[in-house]
Design a protein that fits this description.
It contains eleven helices and ten strands. The two termini are 39 Å apart. By secondary structure, it is α/β, with parallel strands linked by helices.
Length: 338
């Protein structure tokens, strides 16, 4: 399911001195999986920070259940920027033959020391105490091949547990996972922020391991676009990146915390207590994910995680990640903000 919140600009302007009409603003659709944790739902909540919005580009957030669905959407022209993770990049390149994908920016990284890592949770009164105790139980992830499924796979493999032989892994949309756990329809859920910050989840569930425990630092989300699109629209994309960086720096400034919390409440309709203690804070498991201030994805970390997937048999072919990187847009945008 996709939910688009469209911000559309509309009129053709007359180019100064030439009498020729400028091109329509570039349409940019950016994917997201989890509201707030992914930038798309809040990026332009402060429109005054977006100096080029509705001038050189327009912006639409597009919702997807998991990152595997983004590959087809990007290939089909249904997205301009996909929010791929460390699990889906090699699939896009090696399986789907999308050798023209380029990593253009960081979004968030899981398991960086001092920051948050996704939690694999059971009921607080569950007899499951360790990973070995998962044998014979039902485990929920949001999508096979996603950034929550592969770390689960890695941890199960470490304990010689195999899906369909020792455990049953099922797909459940992330917002439904807590209810499925509390109703005892599943025995473990793979839960990201902001859902783990929900007081009901904190009171009724406990963590038996984190994504960082399973795989170390992983690039949970990164912005990816196709090379022909980048080359054709470099000027407008740099404008977009400038506005995005400006907005991201504003959100991460502690002096704006109270207003940030209210934006999160407005976007999700969840109460302030779900956000206030952790959003954009460095506080370990009580804080937020790591976001690179320069907007650079962790290329070395992505390579390590892809090599791990190859060893697990999750993918059949590795890739050289360095061949699929283009930080020229984000770097040019950063220079404008200095």
């Amino acid at each position: 399911m996709r939910v688009g919140a469209s911000i559309i600009a509309g009129v053709l302007a007359v180019a100064l001195g030439s009498g020729a009409a400028q091109a329509d603003p570039l349409k940019i659709r950016l994917a997201y999986i989890v509201p707030v944790s992914n930038w798309a739902t809040i990026l332009f909540a402060k429109p005054e920070l977006a100096h080029h919005l509705n001038k050189s580009y327009t912006f639409e957030p597009e919702r997807y259940q998991g990152t595997p669905q983004l590959i087809q959407a990007l290939a089909a022209g249904e997205l301009e920027i996909a929010d791929l993770g460390f699990t889906t990049l090699p699939i896009a390149v090696a399986n789907a033959g999308m050798t023209d994908v380029r990593i253009i920016a960081d979004e968030l990284q899981d398991g960086v020391p001092g920051y948050y890592s996704n939690q694999y949770m059971v009921l607080k009164d569950s007899p499951i105490k360790t990973v070995d105790d998962l044998k014979g139980h039902i485990l929920a992830i949001n999508a096979f091949g996603s950034g929550t499924e592969v770390p689960l796979h890695a941890m199960l493999d470490r304990h010689n547990l195999v899906n369909k032989r020792d455990v049953t892994v099922v797909e459940v949309p992330i917002p439904q996972m807590p209810a499925e756990l509390f109703e005892k329809k599943v025995d473990l859920i793979a839960l990201p922020l902001p859902f783990t910050a929900n007081p009901k989840v904190q009171q009724g569930a406990r963590t038996i391991f984190t994504q960082g425990d399973a795989m170390g630092v992983t690039q949970l989300a990164m912005w990816v676009a196709l090379k022909p699109f980048i080359e054709k629209n470099r000027a407008a994309l740099t404008d977009f990146m400038e506005d995005a960086l400006r907005a991201e720096h504003w959100f991460e400034d502690p002096k704006n915390h109270a207003e940030v919390v209210q934006i999160c409440v407005n976007v999700t309709k969840l109460p302030a207590q779900n956000w206030d203690s952790w959003i954009f804070k460095k506080a370990g498991q009580d804080g937020d994910y790591y976001r690179d201030p320069k907007g650079h994805a962790d290329i070395a970390g992505i390579q390590r995680s892809i090599d791990t997937q190859l060893k697990l048999g999750v993918i059949k072919q590795s890739i050289d990640v360095k061949q699929y990187v283009d930080f020229s847009l984000i770097d040019a945008a950063a220079k404008r903000l200095k």
